[in-house]
Design goal:
- By secondary structure, this protein is mostly helical.
- The protein has 2 domains: 214 residues, no CATH class; 264 residues, no CATH class.
- It contains 19 helices and no strands.
- The longest helix is centred in the N-terminal third of the chain and has 61 residues.
- 44% of the residues are buried.
- Its main location: membrane.
Length: 494
Amino acid sequence: MENSNNSYSHILKYTSLFGGVQMLNILIGLVRNKLVAVLLGPAGMGLVALFSSTIKLVVDSTNFGLHISAVRNISMAFDNGDEKWLRHEIEVFRHWILITALFGLVVCAALSSLLSDWTFSFGDHTLHFVLLSPVVALTTLTVGETAILKATRRLKALAVTSIYGAIGVFAISVPIYWIYNYKGIVPSLVLMALVQAIIVLQCSLRLYPLQMRFRLDCIKEGMAFLRLGIAFVVAGMLGSGAELAIRAYLSNASDVDTVGLYNAMYVMIFTYAGMVFTAIDTDYYPRLSAIKTHGGKLNDTVNNQIEVSMNIVSPLIVLFILFMPILLPLLYSGKFNAVIPMLQVAALSMYGRGVFLPLEYIALSRGNSMTFLTIEIFSDVVLASLVILGFNMFGLLGIGIAITTAYMLEMLFARMVCRIKYKYRMSSTVVRTILFHLAVGICVYASTHIESNLLYCIVGTLIFCADAWFSLNVVKKHTAIMEKLKGKFKKFVG
């Protein structure tokens, strides 16, 4: 019980930490985007988005997902306590990160003419992509060194580098756009990547100094990373393909405005509402990777993660649904109000996502690339099919219903696969927690149909208080957080 409570406290602490860091990064990003939009206008913002998305595609296609696959080996070495083994795994990983960084740079430069033709329907941007090729290498290095910090549980360092990186990007991009306008786009992207790389490298190299001498045996040993890494890249490409198919269908079946509304919904749900899940990739995946056996400890780790995620995310979802009529115009404009009903029902998908993600990471942590790909393919096919069907039947509201339905089905499928493959058993406590919060989510969504504003506020407040009370009681049961807060408050008052 004590070990379980310690695990719960750890998960709660770092889920809250990285959720908070992500929120701060989003706030900095919102201010930055607002200033950049004023300085560059829609056309300039479009150029930045096109360059950034194309560079991201090159990075994702040339790093072979090593930042995911290597975490498992480094985590196992770290948990084993063998410093020599750990240093060796990091050295092998850095060999491959350097190779993929150089490979990405060369690919971007070599394909610059093709990238220009594929990305832009006007002008020749070949030189721009040649100049942006260092961004690919710098981003790959940054992601790689960040993976080392994740695998070795340097969580506070990760939080600090994330905040400094966001501030650095803000401090560089805004002045450059202010002085040079469009001409500053390419230089700013290069400098932003350089600053982020310097911040992360300074931290990781201080903790794990570079001891790399180019060795052929390290390259051969690192080949083991590729299978799972490539599976992760393929899964990412399938996910991008599913999203592209959805957007293409909406554009053809309706118009570009519908695509814009769908994009707004996607950002609100999967970026803003989903920020609490940042800790799953940062903290949970390395811890899970270090567990060698199935059953017992694996089940406890997964169940604790699901329970904490649900107890944190549910009150946030309730507030998200209740305040959506205020949040959306604030973050976008009144022109996007048509998407509010879709957003409110799509927010319920976060309950399914809170269970699905911890289950999906089991396959990654075991190094089972085909199992992971099977879950991803099922998810992509179900999501794309249901969104198209939902839009045909109920329009924008149907998209929201489809997204929530898709995640519930994905959750059930992932649970079935993990039960068969890894002997995973969901505890009765977790089942009760999921059912309670899901019932709360359905109730708060039902309250959005109340026409009286006063009654809407009263009912919404009561639902939120009930959900928050449940979550708080669970937290009090498993942790001493309330006693710590009381102690700090007494010190402050005293």
